[in-house]
UniProtKB/TrEMBL annotation:
PANTHER family: PHOSPHATE TRANSPORTER. The keyword Protease does not apply. It is a multi-pass membrane protein. The lineage of its organism: Bacteria, Pseudomonadati, Pseudomonadota, Alphaproteobacteria, Hyphomicrobiales. This is Phosphate transporter. The chain crosses the membrane at residues 29-52, 58-79, 91-114, 134-155, 167-187, 193-219, 231-248, 260-278, 299-317, 345-364, 384-403, 467-492.
């Protein structure tokens, strides 16, 4: 027995190794925190350089610092929605996924993030009800601080809450504290609230539809590789067409105004070109692959990377409003001295949101990737592609309509849509039963689902506990952010006023 005991020297070396690992982890956390603090300070310096001579310069600098802090938290919490499925399916490494997300987040915010900023900053609170610039500024700052603190807390405990819920709840709570319930534009709020319910359902339906298409026309075909050569280029072209149509309609409007019909024509043309280029590429990739599902996953690598980039672009276009919407309203109020006129978005304000989201996801984002990418349901590259493309299409539609929907709701809804569809398809699909049937003596017997209830519960493809946890977090976020914002308003209005 003595021969199996670990020598004292080995034990001491193990202890030293554990101490080194712990010190390394602590050091990484301190570096991330230090870099984030440096970014926040730089944002304050830039704001001071632009607004130093203005009467409300100090308030603008404070708002810029808070807006930068808010953007960092959005990046830290919402990164899972963009790259979680890709990383969870092992189609992309964490480093490459974060780099792609950071680049396209910034591009989406700077190119197409303007319209939804107007909704978040002006559509929730009626400007006439808070016409005093000091009151309006205090309300916007309270909304920023409350939502940022709530998202930071959620990120710390590992909960993927909705940043859109947080900021909308913060704006609503501050508006009620400032001027009563009548200050809130309940028509706009009802439309936004409806989109919170509709968007995850729509995301789940679209993701399930794409997965059904892939299973029907590719996976459960006798020659999977030939089917993939035919349909994977089509899926890539759909993604490219959607992205091109959105960019033409939203991203180029400052140069040339393009209507919806023209944008769709441009998207169709780009889709055709992409399909032409993708066919030979997929054909080359499929040479020598075995006729099995594992081989199909390799062919979905490029579509998954592109869809993750598209989702990041759409997320930046939509969620930058959560960071800089109230900040833009504060800057406008301080510069022009009124609340009622239309908000213009300075470039430096957009840059604060875009860079803050990117830095937040690079520095703190990986913590929540496991929840969306691995813990809800098992994802492979094909399922992850359906989730990413579905979420991107849904977010793009919402951004085009100017609705600040929750990308968290959409992405998680798409993940649940894929998981629940897999459960249904596994238990009830006649095509699947026929494909996996066992031939015995020339007779075909279908594989039946397990009838034992405990075994069926164990084999569920979607973890119900995570579903309940996520829904509970969504429900709590709005009232919590609103209550915190209302309390903060009473303190800030005394300081600003």
């Amino acid at each position: 027995m003595d021969s199996y005991k670990k020598p004292t020297l080995d034990k001491d070396l193990d202890k030293l190794s554990y101490m080194e690992e712990a010190a390394g982890s602590l050091g990484k956390g301190l570096v991330s925190t230090g870099l984030a603090l440096l970014f926040v300070v730089l944002c304050g310096v830039v704001a001071g350089a632009y607004m130093f001579d203005m009467p409300g310069g100090a308030v603008i600098v404070a708002a810029a610092v808070i807006g930068a802090y808010m953007a960092l938290n959005i990046g830290a919490n919402d990164v899972a929605n963009n790259v979680g499925p890709a990383v969870g399916s092992r189609a992309m490494s964490l480093v490459s996924a974060l780099v792609i997300a950071a680049v396209f987040e910034s591009a989406g915010a700077l190119i197409a993030g303007g319209d939804v900023v107007g909704t978040i900053s002006k559509g929730i609170i009626d400007p006439a009800a808070v016409s005093d610039p000091a009151i309006f500024t205090a309300a916007m700052m309270a909304a920023l601080v409350s939502s940022a603190l709530w998202i930071n807390l959620a990120t710390w405990v590992g909960a993927p809450v909705s940043t859109t819920h947080s900021i909308v709840g913060g704006v609503m709570g501050a508006g009620i504290a400032a001027a009563g319930i009548s200050a809130v534009n309940w028509g706009t709020m009802s439309g936004i609230a409806a989109s919170w319910v509709i968007s995850p359902l729509l995301g789940g339906i679209i993701a399930a539809a794409f997965l059904a298409f892939i299973k029907t026309f590719i996976i459960y075909q006798d020659d999977k590789i030939a089917a993939a050569r035919r349909w994977v280029p089509v899926l890539i072209s759909v993604m490219a067409g959607v992205f091109a149509a959105y960019l033409a309609m939203k991203g180029l409007k400052k140069i040339i105004k393009i209507d919806l019909q023209t944008a769709l024509m441009i998207g169709g043309a780009i889709a055709l070109v992409t399909w032409t280029l993708a066919r030979p590429l997929i054909a080359r990739q499929s040479v020598g692959l075995e006729n099995r599902n594992q081989s199909l996953r390799k062919l979905f690598g490029i579509p998954l990377v592109c869809s993750a980039a598209l989702l990041s672009f759409a997320h930046g276009a939509n969620d930058v409003a959560n960071a800089v919407g109230p900040l833009a309203a504060i800057v406008h109020t301080a510069e022009f001295g009124d609340v009622a006129s239309k908000v213009t978005i300075p470039l430096w304000v957009m840059a604060v949101g875009a860079l803050g989201i990117s830095f937040g996801l690079l520095l703190f984002g990986p913590k929540l990737i496991n929840m969306v990418g691995q813990q809800i349901t098992k994802l492979n590259p094909m399922r992850a592609y359906c989730v990413a493309l579905s979420a991107a299409i849904t977010v793009i539609i919402a951004s085009a309509l100017g609705l600040p929907v929750s990308s968290t709701h959409i992405a998680v809804g798409a993940v649940f849509g894929v998981g629940f569809f897999r459960e249904w398809y596994t238990e009830r699909s006649g095509r699947r039963f026929e494909y996996v049937s066992v031939k015995n003596g020339g007779k075909v017997s279908k594989v039946r689902p397990v009838r034992n209830r405990e075994e069926q519960a164990r084999r569920k493809l979607v973890r119900r506990a995570h579903f309940l946890t996520i829904v509970a977090a969504w429900v709590v976020t709005v009232p919590a952010a609103a209550a915190l914002s209302g309390l903060l308003y009473f303190g800030l209005v005394r300081i600003i006023g």
